[in-house]
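[audit] Reproducing an earlier prediction to check determinism. Same input, same settings, fresh worker. If the tokens differ from the archived copy the diff job will pick it up downstream; this log only records the rerun itself.
[audit] input (191 residues):
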Amino acid sequence: MTKNAKYEAIVVGTSAGGLNALFVLLETLPANFPLPIIIVQHRSKDKNDLLEEVLQNKCKVKIKQADEKEKIEKGVVYIAPPDYHVLIENDLTLSLSADEYVQFSRPSIDVLFESAAGVYKDKLIGIILTGANSDGASGIRLIKANDGLTIAQKPEEAFSPVMPSAAIKTNAVTHIWPLSKIRDFLLTLNN
């Protein structure tokens, strides 16, 4: 049995300073990474947004923007499109929503985390990285309540410590680690 048999998906939330944090987490993952990773990075509606392309140029794992009704596949990194919430449905597909902003954000980390917690339960890993608001704190609480594994970036090393600090204040974070340790942990899931 592999170490990752316990987990079926990873959700990641980040905002200010997120691009560099995502590089650290994703650039060493192998192309055949065994879990899907669904990411909310707060970003504007700029039509020239090249987040997926920029990340793909430095990473081996497949990176793409999430699409409506797309089947979630292992080894793919899905990134929420600008101005849309991304949710996980019970049939393991992605759903996009233009519903109201949550924590002043669309896409919202809480929306992703809460939907993922309801589907994956204890087989989910939730990770909160650098960011300048409290989006994700409610979602981290729900992941933990469903016995999922919760991780926050060590606030002292975050570009913006507000988001990981807000998650930690919920008392629902299993591990508080620097980015390098989160990256190393993800690599162990490949064994």
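[audit] rerun output stored. Observation attached for the diff report: The chain has one domain: 3-188.
[audit] end
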